[in-house]
């Protein structure tokens, strides 16, 4: 429920070891990049208890994986193996048991090397411009996010660093 309505404006990376059932998979559906250990297990099991998944899984899962797979998870309370989660696109990467957090930290380090204004705008685009929006309308919404980024000092620094073949020094301005 923590990620239902108030997701931060930065990318969220999830590392899963072991079971991520019910609330664990609900949290997963609110994240951006997901790393799972090979022994991880996922599932939205509320239906088996006569409950409704209130943290958004019934909305997010059908938008993130094929409808029929989301329906199977939600309507049956089915457990999903880590390999199935990878095959279905529910997680990004599988790693050996005990390595999920280390891999998530590597991804976080890569994200920290990017331009913060661009990162925030792309994160908003991923979360706010849904696939059911007409393409022309989505492009206009995307432009509204992109224009301030292109006008920023960070954009100029990024292009200058690329031209000079050096690491960019982003300031968030």
- Assign a percent range to the helix content: 40-55%
- How are strands sequenced across the largest beta sheet? 1-3-6
Mean pLDDT across residues: 93
Low-confidence stretches: none
Q: Give the distance, in angstroms, between the N- and C-terminal Cα atoms.
A: 33 Å
Q: Structural class, from secondary structure content?
A: mainly alpha
Number of strands: 6
Question: Rg to the nearest angstrom?
Answer: 18 Å
What is the molecular shape? globular
Beta-strand proportion: 5-15%
How would a crystallographer describe the biggest sheet?
3 strands, parallel
Please write out the topology:
Blueprint: E1 13-16, E2 19-21, H1 23-29, E3 33-37, E4 41-43, H2 57-64, H3 67-76, E5 80-81, H4 82-88, E6 93-95, H5 100-112, H6 116-128, H7 135-150, H8 153-163
Parallel strand pairs: 1-3, 2-4, 3-6
Antiparallel strand pairs: 4-5
Task: Explain the overall architecture.
It is a single chain. The protein is built from eight helices and six strands. It has 173 residues and is mainly alpha-helical. The model has no long low-confidence stretch (mean pLDDT 93). The two termini are 33 Å apart.
Task: Summarize the model shown.
The protein is mainly alpha-helical and 173 residues long. Helices cover 49% and strands 12% of the residues.
Relevant terms:
single chain; 173 residues; mainly alpha; three-stranded parallel β-sheet; three-stranded mixed β-sheet
């Amino acid at each position: 429920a923590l990620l239902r309505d108030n997701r931060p404006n930065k990318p969220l990376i999830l590392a899963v070891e072991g079971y991520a059932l019910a609330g664990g998979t609900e949290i997963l559906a609110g994240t951006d990049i997901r790393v799972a250990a090979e022994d991880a297990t996922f599932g939205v099991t509320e239906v088996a208890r006569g409950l409704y998944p209130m943290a958004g899984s019934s909305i997010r899962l059908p938008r993130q994986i094929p409808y029929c797979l989301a329906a199977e998870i939600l309507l049956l309370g089915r457990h999903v193996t880590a390999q199935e989660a990878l095959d279905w696109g529910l997680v990004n990467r599988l790693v050996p048991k005990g390595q999920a957090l280390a891999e998530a930290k590597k991804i976080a380090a890569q994200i920290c090397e990017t331009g913060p204004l661009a990162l925030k705008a792309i994160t908003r685009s991923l979360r706010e411009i849904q696939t059911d929006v007409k393409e022309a309308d989505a492009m206009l919404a995307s432009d509204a996010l992109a224009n301030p980024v292109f006008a920023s000092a960070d954009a100029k620094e990024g292009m200058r660093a690329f031209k000079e073949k050096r690491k960019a020094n982003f300031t968030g301005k």
